[in-house]
């Protein structure tokens, strides 16, 4: 009987597999070997797609005549920086004494792609190959994954979608970046007075740029509009409450053109007119025409997926999505939490049955102690499978991010910020075992001369899950005496009006994205799509994946298309970013729209699910590349773009470089293809 090879994605993960397997050996150069098993590793990607010049040296020079570039057969090559490890891994996989390969790369599309490329370039033949699919790096989970490993062929569709995703990004990036650079790069460089400008575009990256630029322009073009609300102070002195007037049916101003919505006026004089009408007949009193008392339940939110966690950490700690992923990946590798690159916010029924193990393990985490005592007393963990936090249908690759209950001692050695992120995950997890928070809500309607004022109040009766999750910052406490007075008000009661006031308000522009809300917008791209049928079709797809969204933002910042305020995490476009946006908007507009990007992602999901073939997907992709490339070649829109550049530059208050570049003549800058 031959040896088994376990190939992980990183050296640190390989070490955990070696420990779980009780592999008694010293580390060799790039692998660990025992009597019956070998553990080796990649270091991320070992193999990549070849650039066009690998097909033909002449393609190194950028030229419109060689576009579109769509090879019949794609070529791959070993990455020079990791060539040594590739040779070690390839040698091990092909050893005659090895008969079984356990693929232990990260359990997802990208992890699948990393291994398949290695196997492809190493020319592995005649081996039994099994896929280990795990959700955490605890010993128990690793051994379960090995024990239940499936034949690698069962993941062929996932592998196909991974290859297609890479080909798609490659073809769009190579063709459209070269195309738009050759067509517009010089004009951008001349305008910015830079040496040259490469127009870098990508399937996901350009769409995200579009989201940010559109939002910024909405803010820039926003015209603030004042409006005037009328409020009244009702009740006896010392126990008054505020009610807001609304022009509901029966009001003299119902559906009036003077209104700004139903609770304000466009002009202050109209608000004064209302007050004069209400105070014509003193004493001014109000009659309570309606009261409503009801209890409201608020349940704990769903568990964290990566996007939700990135948004929460951006809000709380002002850190980037990329930093959050780095931290939670570190926590995962220390066995503290489950697999981070997940889109699911629920648990599987299988995990729910074993959830007591996670809770028992958290007994060693001191801050969780009081909450675990409550959960034990409630016994709620026994019925977790029947709650909304467990749903097998909502899980594709991995369930939500939760604490494993293991590795608690490792927390002593992690940075303070990492410990804080861990605590956020723990508290969200524990909160789902608590009952809902219960609020008492009282709503009142008071009429003065037939005009209605509305007031509502809410107090927290039972904190429920908020005990573990923490009360929201905006939660306001209500004085007991005041609350008693409010509850005693009955329908038909007459209340003195202590004051009527005009409150000026102003319409607000859309909020800028921060790094966290932008990640959520990428995940929920379907909400940005107006077409209802398409929105339904791509529900759950979004832009990019949980594993790539942070890297996409990082690339946009690196290219200086977007700027990130590290203190606030607010994201804004740069002048160059807006110019790239205008170029794409006037050439391949669909690249800016969530419809296209999300539908491509949905197509990859169809391939992974076996609903369409690789050939069908590639045929659609090839046609898209060809048609858009030929369309851009025939465009003559430089004048329109110059107008757009001027408009953007005016906002940034940067002088046009036209005068400076003109002194050099049209040949003042080399084309990108000549450099």
UniProtKB/TrEMBL annotation:
Which Gene3D superfamilies does the UniProt record give? 3.40.50.140, Topoisomerase I, domain 2, Topoisomerase I, domain 3, Topoisomerase I, domain 4
Sorted alphabetically, the Gene Ontology BP terms of this entry are: DNA recombination; DNA repair; DNA topological change
GO cellular component terms listed in the entry, alphabetical order: cytoplasmic replication fork
Q: Alphabetically list the UniProt keywords.
A: DNA-binding, Isomerase, Topoisomerase
What does the record give as the reaction this protein catalyses? ATP-independent breakage of single-stranded DNA, followed by passage and rejoining
MF term (GO), any = DNA topoisomerase type I (single strand cut, ATP-independent) activity
Q: Where is the composition biased (Low complexity)?
A: 655-664
Q: Which range is the signal sequence, renumbered to this chain? A: none
Q: Which residues form the Toprim domain?
A: 3-136
Protein name, entry field: DNA topoisomerase
Say which species the protein is native to: Mordavella massiliensis
């Amino acid at each position: 009987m031959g040896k088994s090879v376990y190939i992980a994605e990183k050296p640190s993960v390989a070490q955990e597999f070696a420990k779980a397997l009780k592999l008694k050996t010293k580390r060799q150069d790039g692998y660990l070997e025992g009597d019956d098993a070998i553990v080796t590793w990649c270091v991320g990607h070992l193999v990549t797609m070849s650039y066009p010049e690998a097909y033909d040296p002449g393609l190194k020079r950028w030229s419109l005549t060689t576009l579109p570039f769509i090879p019949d057969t794609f070529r791959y090559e070993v990455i020079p920086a990791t060539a040594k490890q590739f040779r070690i891994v390839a040698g091990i996989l092909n050893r005659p004494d090895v008969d079984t390969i356990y693929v232990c790369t990260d359990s997802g599309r990208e992890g699948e792609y990393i291994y398949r490329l290695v196997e492809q370039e190493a020319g592995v033949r005649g081996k039994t190959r099994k896929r280990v699919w795990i959700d955490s790096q605890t010993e128990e989970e690793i051994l379960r994954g090995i024990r239940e490993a499936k034949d690698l062929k069962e993941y062929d569709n996932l592998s196909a979608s991974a290859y297609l995703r890479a080909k798609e990004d490659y073809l769009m990036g190579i063709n459209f970046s070269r195309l738009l650079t050759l067509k517009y790069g010089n004009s951008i460089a001349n305008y910015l007075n830079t040496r040259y400008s490469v127009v870098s575009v990508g399937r996901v990256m350009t769409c995200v740029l579009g989201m940010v630029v559109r939002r910024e322009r909405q803010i820039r073009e926003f015209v603030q509009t004042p409006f005037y609300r009328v409020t009244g102070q009702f009740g006896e002195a010392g126990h008054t409450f505020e009610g807001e007037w609304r022009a509901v049916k029966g009001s003299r101003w119902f559906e009036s053109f003077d209104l700004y919505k139903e609770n304000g006026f466009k002009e202050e004089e109209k608000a004064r007119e209302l007050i004069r009408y209400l105070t014509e007949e003193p004493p001014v009193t109000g009659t309570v025409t309606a009261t409503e008392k009801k209890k409201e339940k608020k349940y704990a939110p769903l568990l964290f997926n990566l996007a939700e966690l990135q948004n929460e950490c951006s809000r709380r700690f002002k850190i980037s999505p990329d930093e959050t992923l780095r931290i939670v990946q570190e926590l995962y590798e220390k066995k503290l939490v489950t697999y981070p690159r997940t889109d699911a916010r629920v648990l599987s029924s299988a995990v729910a049955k074993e959830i007591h193990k996670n809770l028992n393990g958290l007994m060693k985490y001191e801050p969780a102690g009081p909450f675990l005592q409550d959960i034990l007393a409630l016994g709620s963990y026994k019925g977790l499978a029947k709650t909304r936090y467990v749903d097998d249908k909502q899980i594709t690759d991995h369930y939500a991010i939760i604490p494993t209950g293991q590795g608690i001692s490792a927390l002593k050695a992690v940075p303070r910020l990492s410990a804080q992120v861990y605590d956020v995950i723990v508290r969200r997890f524990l909160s789902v075992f608590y009952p809902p928070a219960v609020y008492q809500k009282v709503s009142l309607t008071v009429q003065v001369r037939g005009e209605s004022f509305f007031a509502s109040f809410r107090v927290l009766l039972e904190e429920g899950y908020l005990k573990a999750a923490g009360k929201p910052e905006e939660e306001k406490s209500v004085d007991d005496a005041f609350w008693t007075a409010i509850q005693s008000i009955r329908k038909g009661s007459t209340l003195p009006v202590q004051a009527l006031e005009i409150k000026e308000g102003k319409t607000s522009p859309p909020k800028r994205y921060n790094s966290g809300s932008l990640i959520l917008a990428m995940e929920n791209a379907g909400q940005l799509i107006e077409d209802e049928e398409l929105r339904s079709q791509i529900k759950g797809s979004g832009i990019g994946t949980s594993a790539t969204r942070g890297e996409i933002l990082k690339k946009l910042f690196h290219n200086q298309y977007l700027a990130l305020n590290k203190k606030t995490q607010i994201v804004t476009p740069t002048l160059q970013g807006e110019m790239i946006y205008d170029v794409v908007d006037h050439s391949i507009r669909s690249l800016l729209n969530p419809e296209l990007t999300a539908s491509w992602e949905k197509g990859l999901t169809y391939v992974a699910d076996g609903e369409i073939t690789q050939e069908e997907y590639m045929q659609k992709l090839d046609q898209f590349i060809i048609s858009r490339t030929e369309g851009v070649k025939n465009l003559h829109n430089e004048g329109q773009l110059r107008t757009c550049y001027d408009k953007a530059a005016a906002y940034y208050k940067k002088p046009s470089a036209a005068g400076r570049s003109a002194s050099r003549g049209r040949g003042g800058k080399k084309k990108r293809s000549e450099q």
